[in-house]
Write a structure and sequence with these properties.
The protein folds into three domains: 57 residues; 27 residues, no CATH class; 66 residues, no CATH class. It has nine helices and no strands. α8 crosses α9.
Length: 165
């Protein structure tokens, strides 16, 4: 391994971790997904390579984890967590609760959404109109309003949720 690689691999791994974790959290909450998704995926691949090189560089320490079985419990917990996400998604054919929640909110009529968010429905309508959406009635769903406005339902939902802050 080159001297530069040996010198910087831990710092590179740490920097990539911060970026991949930050963009992953942003995507989880539906913030700027269209901005960071591709970057997140590619840098996650680079991060995996960097961590692999970091492990090669520090292999003696890893052997100690295996010898003392220190890695057994964390590895088992990670495996159980992975299975807990993968199996239900595979059985139900969907990717978890968040997309379903967002889809339900997007399909809710403004009056119903207002009760859930504890906001006045006319206030939600005003926020949407100020952002360029065409709101014919508070009896319409965010999806219908977005479609009538030529925009994405997720954009309408994020407009409402950001206004709630």
């Amino acid at each position: 391994m080159s001297d530069a690689l040996i010198k910087y691999i831990t710092a590179v791994s740490a920097a990539l971790f911060v970026v991949v974790a930050g963009s992953g959290i942003a995507m989880f909450f539906g913030v700027g997904e269209h901005l960071v998704k591709e970057m997140h995926e590619w840098l996650a691949v680079v991060f995996a390579i960097a961590v692999g090189l970091h492990l090669v560089r520090n292999w003696k320490g890893m052997v100690t984890y295996f010898r003392k079985r220190t890695i057994a419990v964390p590895a088992a917990l990670v495996a159980v967590a992975a299975v807990a996400f993968i199996v239900p998604a595979a059985l139900n054919g969907h990717e978890g609760p968040m997309p379903g929640l967002f889809q339900s909110l997007e399909q809710a009529k403004l009056d119903d959404l207002a009760r859930v968010l504890k906001l006045p429905s006319d206030g939600i309508a005003n926020v949407l109109e100020q952002s360029g959406f065409v709101v014919g009635s508070t009896d319409l769903s965010l999806s219908e309003i977005a479609e009538d406005s030529g925009r994405a339902p997720k954009e309408a939902l994020m407009t409402v949720l950001n206004a709630r802050r």
